[in-house]
Structures are given as C-alpha cells and as structure tokens.
Amino acid sequence: MDDQNKNLIFATVLSFIVILGWFVLFPPQETETLSEPPLQTTDANASEAVVPANAGSASIPAEDSASSTEALDTAPRIAVETARIAGSISLLGGRVDDLYLKDYNTTIEEDAPTVRLLSPAGSTDAYYALYGWAPGAGISPDQVPGPSTLWSLSDGETLSVDAPVTLTWDNEAGQVFSRTISIDENYMFKIDQTITNSAENSVSLAPYGLIARHGIPSDAQNFFILHEGLVTMNNGELLETAWDDIPDLDVVNGVPSKRIDGVTNGWIGFTGHYFMTNLIPDPAQPTRLTVKYLPRTEIFQTEAVMPTQVVASGQAATVSTQLFAGAKEWEILRAYEAQGVYKFIDSIDWGWFFFLTKPIFWVLHHLNLLIGNMGVAIIGLTLLIKALLFPLAYKSYVSMAKMKELQPQMEKLKKDAGDDRQKLQQGMMELYKREKVNPAAGCLPILMQIPIFFSLYKVIFVTLELRHAPFFGPFQDLSAPDPTSIYNLYGLLPWGAPEAGTVLALVFIGILPLLLGVSMFLQQKLNPAPTDPTQQMIFAWMPWVFMFMLGGFASGLVVYWIANNTITFTQQYLIMRSQGYKPDILGNIKGSIKLGRKGDPK
Asked: Does 193 fall in a domain?
C-alpha cells in the first residue's frame, strides 16, 4: 500500500472520529440572550403582572395516576373536530388539553393508535395549554379567571374550521370575561381574550398564556443529535434548553426559571421529536417570555405575558394570541412564517450544519414530491451530490492515478534514503513538484462527504417528512433501522428483527447494512491489496466494521451510503480506465485472499 492510500484511509477514519467525538463531548450550547428592558405597560402605576406560580398545577387531582378517560370526565367539554385534529377543550380553566393528530400514528402498524399530543391534568404525560389574566391595580386575584375557573359556553357547539366557540365568565364584581377560540385547517389556534368593565373604577390586568408539561415525556429520546425540550424565539435569537437542563436554571423566588422581557417577534413552547406546542403572542407587542420548573409537582411551564391592559369604567379590551399545537411539517411551518410567525421554520432542529441541512432537505423534499418515493428520492439526491462533487472527484482520481505511476520512483527514493526520513520527505516533495501531483487531492472528496453525511443524517433523523416514509418491500420506515435480518429470514417470516440497540440487533444485521459492506469491499478492490500486514488488516476489516457500525442507523442513511459507494465505484472505475489503468477487481480479491493466508509462499 502506497503512502497516498495510507494517508487517505487515515484521514477518513480520523475525520470521522473527530467530528463524532466533538458532537458527543461538546453538544451545541444554548443561545444566550440578554434581558431587555422590563415589560412595558399602558399604566405607569400598574404593578407588574405575575402569573400564579402554581398555574399549571392548579386543580390537579390528588392522584396523578388517573386514566385519560377519568381526567376528561372531571369537567364539561367542547369537542374539537377538523380534518387534521380531534379532541376537546375543558370548560374548567378553558384548557386546550385533549388533542389527537389524525394524520399520524404511533407506529407503521395498521391498527396503531393515533398520535396524542395533549392530555389533561391527571392523566399520564399530562400536557396542556391554558390562558388567564394576571391581576393588577383595582382587581383582586379571585376576580380574574384562572386555572380553576369554570367557564360557560356562550356561543358555538363544536370547534372546527370557520366555526369558533366563545366562553364567558362573570366575576360578579363588574367585570365580564370572554374567550373566543378559533382554529385553521392545520394546527393553529387563535385565542381572543376580552374583558368588559362595568364597574365604577378602572382595572389593570395582563393577559397571559401558558403551556404546562407534567414531567419529562415518556417518549423523550435524550439523543445528542436531537433537541427536545424548550424552544424559544427571542427577537431573532433561537434559545434551546433540553428537558434535563431546565431544572438547573437559575432559581428565582424558589423556582428554577429563565425570563426574557420585552420580546417582539417571539414565541415559546416545548418541542419533541416530531411534534410541538408554542405560544405565539402578537409580534408587535412587547411580551415577557418565561420558562419555569416547579419541583414540587415536577411541572415544566412556559409563559407568555402580554402588556398590562388598563380598562376604564364602561370600556372593554381584547388581546389576541395564537397557539400552535401539531406536527412540525416543513411546508406548514413555512406557511405560518410567511403569515408573520417570525422564523418559525427554525423550530425544526437543523443543527450546526444548517447551511447544508436546510438545502439538502429542500432538494430531498421536492424530489420526493416529484418521484413519490422517499427512498428513490434519497438515491436521486445522492446522484445530484455526486454530480456537484464530480469535478473535485475527477481531479482526485486523476491525481491518485498519477501517484500510482510514480510508485516505482517512490520505491527507488525509499531505497536510496534508507533510514534517513528527512531525505526521503525532501525527495518525495521534489518528485511531487516536478510531476505536478498533489498528494492531498485524494482526501478532499472524502472530507467533503463528512459534513454532507452528518447533514443528511440530521435530515433523516429529525425531519417529520422522513417519519414512516416507505421505500419498498419490508422497508416501510426510512427513519428507522433496517427491519430485516437472518432472524426473520430477511423479512420473509412474519416477525420483526431484534430490537434496535440490543446485542442480537448488532449481530443479526439486515440486508441494507450487508449491501453497504459489500459496496465498500468492492470499492476497495479497485486497487491491489497492500503488502504490509498492518495495512492489509485495516483494509480487510474496514468494510465490515462500517457495516456493523451503521447497521443500527436509519435505513434512509444506509440507502444513501450504498448509493454513494456504488456511484463512487463507477466513477473511479471509469476514470481509472480513462487514464490507461484497467482495474483487476477479481484478481485483487484473489490476491487479498492469498495475502491473508499465513505461510503462503506466494
């Protein structure tokens, strides 16, 4: 094996290890934001609006193990029904706390249940949104609606597109509160909160919305490449805090929390792998965004407190906000962004390589729309990437071919230099300069592949469009590992492969990882096997190490790597032929077998 190939493989392995190690040891840091001036109010004498610390935990049953059915029966409800979601709103607190996403199932099985996004307090993984008013001057806490308020349905029956509902509550102290809730054809709720003051005195109070999540979600993956937890947009700065890090925030008034004042063009909420909820206040109004962790009840809570309203006698005030509760579909988020939700597309975790991840997803998404099959779209994307990198690859392969032509001269230099390493290096540099050969050119295509590989991995793992995306036959979810193995005769027997992450899954790998190993092996055999035993061992094991290492990765990523290897093999073979060198693949395979036999005189 010549020094060029030795350096090539060394650079490949080292680069892969360095980048993977960097992401593991130094995950992306959350964006730091500086607090802006305190929330402005319309009354200089009004006290600062304070959302009750236990707003998310009020009216929770003593036992938090109640079933969802029992929790739904604790108060009257209003049905929610559109083409894409179903559920209900509780009149207790006016909570949006029961929501199913009709277009998504928990697994690819035909009888799999529909994804449930929101659940009422008292059920497992309780998760809900509620709204209220924080009292200021002229009104007491028991005179504003809160989490325990029982509202009345004054208008509408079932919440659906173009059919809003209105809730009302009279505090019997001169103020009447109403809340009109509407929904679009996708996942956006609009909440109009109104107060009408018939008392003799004016009142000051601030409308707020909050999202409460009881405990860390049971389906949270806690994987370094994926962000789950708090997601906030603060005047163009994205703030992300993982579930595990929220309890470690600075303690304020005995509660771990982070508060950002005076936010315009902002939103705040919780995100999971594919679904999220977000409070979206009026982008033109300075809003206070807060995240809290309530240790006693183990509740994660986000808040959006809008500017204080001063309502004179005989007057009314209305504040409108939005609530997103649904799937992180790229086209839907982009449409909401176009409608004024600032940088909403960034709620998808694009990662550090966002400058690659976003365009790669854009191309992949449109190829899928054109072709109608995500697996074929991944292969098409691979062809496009290889076409873009072909000029660089061509120079690399030509350089490698020239390096092979220089092999006899390099061997002579080694013989003449003996143990003098400096003399050898000087002689090789002069040879490269004289023959106009760049020894590092062979590494460039592989180094270019590394960020592309990670970006595509991010796209396949994070984006909703790859979730449950079918390819063909047994490969019905390109976001999941290969479901085939010898354990189920590669999909012929009616049971699944060993569960991902287990020892059996590592041993009984599927068809795609096997094809990956074979493609790497054949690509390797374009050149004769090295004579050095150590180098020979590295080359012999590398395809199969990668085969097992990538066997547990998403099927879509393995499809990309197989296609990439196949195209690379074809390109390199044709370029080597154009340079007058005919690769003897079968002979190289036989030669490597002979070299592997100890004591073989040949």
From this structure: yes
